[in-house]
Amino acid sequence: IEENDRCKVRVVTKAITPLNAYLLTDGCDLVIDALDNIATRFDLQRACKRRGIPMITGGVSHWHGQVSTIYPGDDTLEAIFGRNASEKHPPVLGFAACNIATCQVAEAAKILLGQPSLRKKLLMIDLNGFTAKIVPIEGRRRLIGLHLRRLSDYRILRGGKLAEKRDLSSDKKQ
Q1: Rounded Cα–Cα distance for residues 70 and 54 (Å)
Q2: 64 has a pLDDT exceeding 80
Q3: What is the DSSP string of the chain?
Q4: In the predicted model, is pLDDT for residue 19 greater than 50?
Q5: Confidence tier at 146 by pLDDT (50, 70, 90)
Q6: Is the alpha carbon torsion for 87, 89, 90, 92 positive or negative?
Q7: For a tag on the chain, would you pick the N or C end, based on fewer CB atoms within 10 A?
Q8: Other CB atoms within 10 Å distance of the CB of residue 123
Q9: For residues 74 and 33, what is the distance between their CA atoms, to the nearest angstrom?
């Protein structure tokens, strides 16, 4: 960052609320969330949508993590968690959080350089099995990705009911 005086990083350490999220994103070209709850991610997604800027979101649970890029109007968090996401606070392993943060920063660099991004995709990483998979986020389907016990299992729900279950290692329906 010191080598490029046109790049400025602003770290915000205050709590993000529905009232201040828009103000905190003033002057940003993109936002990387480093948040520990889903509700605040929704607040930040709305602020970024109003500002017309992308947001890179990431989440960690146990050995697993996920990253996605949300462009204004995509409403990706709804596709991942649903509108009324329940909040669980699973254990987080420090190295898993560092890995996901690294992926978020790499994604930010790609966006700023005009390279293809994780827009409408979810990168899912399993550090216990050393596997990763990019899953397309399709329409209004809701992916349950954050609280995985293993990467080879994720579910797609429609209307709150299980529509299909897939094995990520082969991407076959089960």
Answers
A1: 6
A2: yes
A3: -TT-TT-------SPP-TTTHHHHTTT-S-EE---S-HHHHHHHHHHHHHHT--EEEEEEEBTEEEEEEE-TT--HHHHHH-TT-------B-HHHHHHHHHHHHHHHHHHHTT----BTEEEEEETTTTEEEEEE--TT-EEE-TT-SSTT-EEEEETTEEEEEEETTTTEE-
A4: yes
A5: very low
A6: positive
A7: N
A8: 20
A9: 16
Phi first, then psi, for residue 86 (nearest 5°) are -80, 145
User: What's the rounded Cα separation, in Å, for the pair 155 and 145?
Assistant: 8
| Cβ(80)–Cβ(74) below 8 Å | no
Integer Cα distance of 102 and 84 in angstroms: 28
CB 70 within 8 A of CB 51: no
Cβ–Cβ under 8 Å, residues 48 and 72: yes
Which has the closest alpha carbon to 44: 84, 82, 72, 11?
A: 72
